[in-house]
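Regression test case RT-17, inverse folding.

Input:
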């Protein structure tokens, strides 16, 4: 039974993609602008990842109950229901019709709906996250996030495909951020120790595209797999190419495998050292 590791691992994995776009960056020399576009991308990635965190949390509390209402971890105005009478199974996290202040300090309303046909660890399992009138701090999240267990790759590692097709409609007529991404998540180390999470290593590949709230198109491609070890706060290696409308390409390199907060950004042939806080 892998449940202890599942709960911890999924909660930590949920923010990986947000981390590489959303970390605060500092440098001694300021590179060209583009912050608003990458921030919008990070906001959308984070919103979809956060929905997964809520689902993981609800499932961790589910046990064999069909109704869960956890006042410590999920907030007093959050009701989660799990229907396992038919396949696909259905988990509904209901924040109610009016803003609910959650334990993370954010206000939510509406529903996160999760449908799945098996265990996260079983080959062929498909988990789909969708939304019904769902808002975070009055920003509306629409669309879907889908995680598919693809079994084992040529290296005999478990891997998942994670796709997002959706939008974040910003409050107060702030514009709409669209996001289309397909990532591959490979569990490259740590499977032999199912109750120990800190030795796990994941490799992330894939690409994303979209439109920012100020109507700028963007895309990114992971050209060298991003390596994340769960006992390290930062990414240890990997390279991403960012292309933003009207700006030169930005290449971010996370280093040689050392666990530190140092990365580089290369723009127009000039390399800047950045620190990920």
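Golden output:
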């Amino acid at each position: 039974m892998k449940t202890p590791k599942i709960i911890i691992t999924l909660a930590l994995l949920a923010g990986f993609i947000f981390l590489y776009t959303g970390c605060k960056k500092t440098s001694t020399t300021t590179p060209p602008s583009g912050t608003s576009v990458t921030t919008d991308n990070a906001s959308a990635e984070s919103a979809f990842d956060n929905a997964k965190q809520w689902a993981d949390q609800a499932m961790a509390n589910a046990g064999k109950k069909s109704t869960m209402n956890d006042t410590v971890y999920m907030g007093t105005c959050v009701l989660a229901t799990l229907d396992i009478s038919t396949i696909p199974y259905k988990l509904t996290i209901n924040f109610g019709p009016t803003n609910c202040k959650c334990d993370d300090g954010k206000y939510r309303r509406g529903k996160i709906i999760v449908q799945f046909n098996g265990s996260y660890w079983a080959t062929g399992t498909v988990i789909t996250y969708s939304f019904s009138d769902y808002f975070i701090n009055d920003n509306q999240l629409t669309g879907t996030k889908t995680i598919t267990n693809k079994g084992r790759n040529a290296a005999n590692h478990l891997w998942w495909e994670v796709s997002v097709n959706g939008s974040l409609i910003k409050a107060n007529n702030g514009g709409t951020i669209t996001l289309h991404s397909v990532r591959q998540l490979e569990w490259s180390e740590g499977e032999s120790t199912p109750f120990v999470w800190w030795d796990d290593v994941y490799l992330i590949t894939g690409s994303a595209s979209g439109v920012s709230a100020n109507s700028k198109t963007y895309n990114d491609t992971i050209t060298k797999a991003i390596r994340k070890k769960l006992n390290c706060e930062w990414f240890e290696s990997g390279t991403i190419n960012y292309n933003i409308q009207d700006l030169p390409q930005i290449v971010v390199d996370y280093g040689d495998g050392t666990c530190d907060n140092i990365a580089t950004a290369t723009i127009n042939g000039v390399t800047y050292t950045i620190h990920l806080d």
